[in-house]
Amino acid sequence: MVKFIAYCINPNHYHFILQQVSEKGIEKFMQRLGMGYAKYFNNRRKRSGTLFQGKFKARHIDSNEYLLHVSSYVNLNYKLIG
């Protein structure tokens, strides 16, 4: 299980700041998200196979200062891209 702190969804990528509530919560959430979206996308487009390359990238937020920095980046990311 995870809690969302912040997120940004762009046309070609996304950013999430997640708080892990249970053991391996982030890992399980990202696996479900990737598999669920791939299944939806493949059914809708009548195709099969993977959609994403490689594993998701993750960074551990270990201080309030880093949380403020990362949350600013995530919240401003859409405006920078869009």
Write a short abstract of this structure.
The chain has 82 residues and is an alpha+beta fold.
Characterise this structure.
This protein has a domain at 1-46. It is 48% helix and 18% strand. The protein has two helices and two strands, in the order ββαα. It has helices at 25-45, 64-81, and strands spanning 2-9, 14-20. The protein has a two-stranded antiparallel sheet. The model has no long low-confidence stretch (mean pLDDT 91).
What gyration radius follows from the Cα positions, in whole Å? 14 Å
Distance between the termini: 30 Å
Mean pLDDT: 91
What does the main sheet amount to?
2 strands, antiparallel
**Unreliable runs:** none
Q: Using the alpha-carbon principal axes, give the shape.
A: globular
Number of strands: 2
Binned, the helix content reads 40-55%
Q: Can you list the strand order of the major beta sheet?
A: 1-2
Number of helices: 2
Order of helices and strands: EEHH
Itemize the secondary structure elements and their pairings:
Layout: E1 2-9, E2 14-20, H1 25-45, H2 64-81
Antiparallel strand pairs: 1-2
Q: Top keywords for this entry?
A:
82 residues, alpha+beta, two-stranded antiparallel ribbon, 2 helices, 2 strands, 18% strand, globular
